[in-house]
Specification:
This protein is mostly helical and about 120 residues long. It is built from six helices and no strands.
């Protein structure tokens, strides 16, 4: 189980590093808006897997639902309401609702599921 945790830590931090690079240097709509949203669900998944390397059968579904909830919060500008326009909070929660983001989250969950299936074989 320790080997699995270490693998999850490595995967999580590599993906998180890519997310940070995208946030800092990618200013185009496709990479920052789409690829970043695809990767972020994998970051969340592998972060949780660090602490729970086995079990939680529907974890990818839960991560997807969480991402959709955050996206719906953007529709109602909840981030602005709770943060008072705090730049860091707004970066984490986002500010603009997009149905496209939900498709990106689904794509990220599907890709992560495929990777996990391949890791188990």
């Amino acid at each position: 189980m320790t080997k699995k945790r270490i693998e999850n830590v490595i995967i999580c931090f590599v993906l998180l590093g890519i997310e940070i690079l995208i946030a800092l240097f990618a200013h185009d709509r496709f990479i920052r808006g789409s690829v970043g949203d695809i990767i972020v669900v994998a970051v969340i998944y592998y972060f949780i897997r660090i602490f729970f390397p086995v079990g939680i059968k529907y974890l990818l579904l839960y991560v997807f639902i969480f991402a959709v909830i955050i996206e719906v919060m953007q529709l109602f500008h909840i981030g602005r309401l709770i943060s008072g326009n705090n730049e860091f909070v707004m970066l984490l929660l986002g500010d603009y609702f997009s149905i496209w983001d939900i498709f990106c989250y689904a794509t990220g969950c599907i890709i992560t599921g495929i990777v996990e299936k391949l890791r188990k074989e």
